Amino acid sequence: MIDHTGLSVSDYERSKAFYIAALAPIGYQLLAEFPAAVTGSTDVAGFGEPPKPDFWIHRGVPNQPPIHIAFRVDSRAKVDAFHRAAMAAGGTDNGPPGLRPHYHPNYYGAFVRDPDGHNIEAVCHEG
Length: 127
Hints:
Residues 1-125 form the VOC domain. Pfam families: Glyoxalase. It is a single chain. The chain is an alpha+beta fold. It has helices at 12-23, 36-39, 76-88, and strands spanning 5-9, 29-34, 44-48, 55-59, 68-72, 92-93, 98-99, 108-113, 119-124. Strands 5, 6, 7, 8 and 9 form a 5-stranded mixed β-sheet that branches. The chain starts with a strand and ends with a strand. The model has no long low-confidence stretch (mean pLDDT 97).
């Protein structure tokens, strides 16, 4: 089981604002933030559902190739809301909300590129 994951971002403040907006519809919040003075290396921000962050961003050279991270949600409406919010926050469409039956019959997802080109997805496996 994965406890947490994260990625490097080129513009920390821009990416933090993007993720605050894009992840809000799926119930994720900015739960922790530590400056470089505390971490000893770089600024970090942790997002998740309270009480614990499980998705982190940190200032640095963006991962190459870009990373794909999928957030599982419990409704197709949340997938739709994620896509709208991520696009409004400056994301780039990488696959609008819809069924992806080549994965399985109820795979409903949406894909957005974040400011550094990472492929961020919200997916619902319910029918």
